[in-house]
Amino acid sequence: MSEPVSGTFRDPSLPLAERLADLLRRLTTEEKVGLLHQYQAPVERLGLAAFRTGTEALHGLAWLGPATVFPQAIGLASTWNPDLVRRVGEATAAELLAYHRKDPAGVGRNVWAPVVNPLRDPRWGRNEEGYSEDPYLTGVMGTAYALGLRGDDPARMRTAPTLKHFLGYNNETDRCTTSSNLPPRVLHEYELAAYRPALEAGAAVAVMPSYNLVNGRPAHVSPLIREALRAWAPDDIMVVSDAYAPGNLAGLQGYHPDLPTAYAHAIKAGVDSFTQDDDRPQATLGHIREALARGLLTETDIDQAARHILSVRLRLGEFDPVEPYADVTEAVVNCPEHQEMAREAATQSIVLLKNDGILPLARPADGPLKIAVIGQLGDTLMEDWYSGTLPYAVTALRGLSERCETVFCEGVDRVALRGDGGYVTARQEHDGGPLTLTPEGDGPAVWFDLFDWGGGAYALRAVANGRYLSAGEDGVLVNDQPGPNGWEVRQTFRLEPRPRGALALRHISTGKYAGYAEGALRLVDDADDAVVLVPELVVNGPETAARIAADADVAVVVAGDHPLVNGRETEDRADLDLPAAQEAVLRAVHAANPRTVLVISSGYPFAVTWAQEHVPAVLWSAHGGQEYGHALADVLFGDADPGGRLTQTWYRSACELPDLLDYDIIATDATYMYYRGVPLYPFGHGLSYTEFDYRDLDVSVGEEKITATVTVTNTGERPGVEVVQLYTRQRRSRVKQPLRRLRAFHRLRLEPGESRRITLTFAVGDLAFWDVTRGRFVVEDAPHVLMVGRSARDIRLSAPLHVPGERIPPRDPYAGPIRAVDHDEYDGITLVDASRESGDAVRAREAGGWIRFQSVDFGAGASSCVITAGSTEGAVVTLRLDDPLFGKVAGTVPVPPVADKYETAEATCSLDGVAGLRDLYVVFENEGVTLTTIEVRRA
């Protein structure tokens, strides 16, 4: 690299805009194009170094080696402590800066965190990455973490945080080709609301679009990037693509005919940086150059993208004469302060779901306490896909062993697998070797421990060397892995049943079967070529666990998920059940020792209905990082009050959930806001070792904010942590309103008998909802109830609330065309893209589908209607009044056939008897009809 060139852009005393303009003027078009990839090319003549986007830092620094591992993001949010989450972000940024100083080219300061997708459905494979099903809480936690990553210097950022994944991304099933249906209210009130706070606060300075489509249009070409994201941010933001997503535009999604066209549309929509083809930018940049040559892009388009990128780099201080944060050294990585913070975060994240009095644990009067620690997760800590490398691991067993006498049992079945050619046999060397079949079936060489991770996914550990079975790239099965790991997990199998109790091993990653050829077990394509194996039980896991538990004072069963198996990136869960083998261990242990505590460690909720009914105490936490065992012991022994609270609803069964791909939370009564059933554990739930009393709720309404004050008293005999939660409900409205919605919260610690007056405030504007009749947010003139309590279902005090607002008038059909997507109710339709660039439309998913426009004021009468619609087959649309099946037919509109799904035409019909205030139904007599607008004309 040549010596840096002096100039205005290198002068930190000048305004950012002036520096940015100077730098852009100095760059050639080719140099600007070179900036539009994850691996940005250096500009030697100006002394600009290479720059790389995308360092993973979701809950600590990841993928770079040992670094402090904090609880998963869902665990951090469960603390309900934004200040702590911000401090975790600060610690993560410091460790990133240390790694960056050591390897500036390999460790970039643009971090891909936090994830602010609302956790709409707990079956989502990436549930652990988000914060909450509530958009407000998600926004608070996302802003806190981003602020920590960014730093508090307004002029020089420590890192450049990136919000993921925009927009409507909550399923892994066919994630690159499925479309998330977001009606206007769900879009504005739920999805967008999670992204806005961090951008408006300037905490996040970048955004990553998601793999999916939204209303038929890929998120990477969404007009909302410009219309919403850039409009909210006080400064330029950089938009980075997700990995390989740009190629999908012309590939899996087939949205554009070729890559130059696709990339041109992405840049015009607002994507600035392409994460494509790993560290080989040549092909991507070539497609962008081709788009320029074809006239699909202009130099102005390139300038805009380059400006967004360089604005972030300038704010990182990259072009300043003195390197910012040069004093941060490797000594900060996993330093004692960060270790203590990891323990604090893990402790505060633990949620006590149930307690019949068995907790906190106390030593018996006649001797030391003996605890049986049981379960697949009892003596291990898990790293998820976005974890750092654990510098050390304090497991549940280790944490409890430091306090009392412990015995341990994983509780897994140990089996031998017998085939026609003998027993499956493993090598005893540490690095293992190919599995073979041998006639003899006795001893560790033929024994395997069977781990059930749910969803039919099992891992097998060879007793011979303690290593797990895996399929190598050559298809040979070997016992050489420490456990399920990597992006392509090759260590898990399904046990497919065969007649008379036999089974076949099916490799989950490849879908192939374990066969036998050339003296070794290897993967084969055909199920008929699979080795048929008869399992012989060597050790019964539940029975062994029960025997050990029976001799202990207390049994602690540690159950849960493996973050890389059955619920992870690329894989959703099918149900909410605890893995069957783990459930069997829990029941056997409880039968042997009623003093059983269930500890769940997972990145998502489980439907532990049996445990709630039978087990004396149940706790949950996300995978808690390196200090998990110490945190768990602190809570179990009462050194710390369990201060965590759930940020998601825990349902009793997946049957209570809508279809995974249905994103309309309002229509489907989804999330705690609309759910009408009785959850297993409600949003905000979490018990303490003490009791709290709520009194003297006062509410005041100002012009801009609403204030609630309440007195909270610790009425128990122990210090305790409480999270005071404030909810509202609008009691009368033109539209369906949430049953409850979180508006504010406050975490506090009280000594026994201590009282404190707590003040909670929120903006009057927070009560607004999206009015589809006028396309804007509205605070409606209506009665509300304000509710204060310990969870969304444990309300201790409430008060009436009236906030002056607007009265939403009936729809005026003559004010202009009514967008079809702005309907009030629907059935049998889906939302689609009106064009490749912008606009949404309604498409009939089935014949008889309809949309409803409520309370349309036709006045003295309407004479005709013009619809803008299209159908490749030709179709008929019927207009009915007040009922979609039996309502009076007001008009029938033939929809002319069109050649392209984006082509529409105007079709007119006369209206009969349409006057006064009526509900208008548009009924699609044929499937496949696309409707964009309706225009009504006066009589």
TrEMBL record:
Membrane-spanning parts: none
A GO biological process of this protein is:
arabinan catabolic process
Pfam families attached here?
Answer: CBM_6, Fn3-like, Glyco_hydro_3, Glyco_hydro_3_C
The record's PROSITE patterns line, in alphabetical order, gives: CBM6
The highest taxon in the source lineage is Bacteria
GO MF entry, a single one: xylan 1,4-beta-xylosidase activity
Q: Which UniProt keywords apply?
A: Hydrolase, Signal
Matching entries from CDD domains are given as: beta-trefoil_FSCN_BglX-like, CBM6_xylanase-like
Listed PANTHER family:
BETA-D-XYLOSIDASE 5-RELATED, SUGAR HYDROLASE-RELATED
Its biological purpose? Catalyzes the hydrolysis of a non-reducing terminal alpha-L-arabinopyranosidic linkage in ginsenoside Rb2 (alpha-L-arabinopyranosyl-(1->6)-alpha-D-glucopyranosyl) to release alpha-D-glucopyranosyl (Rd). It is not able to hydrolyze alpha-L-arabinofuranosyl-(1->6)-alpha-D-glucopyranosyl (Rc).
What is the name of this protein? Exo-alpha-(1->6)-L-arabinopyranosidase
- Organism annotation: Thermostaphylospora chromogena
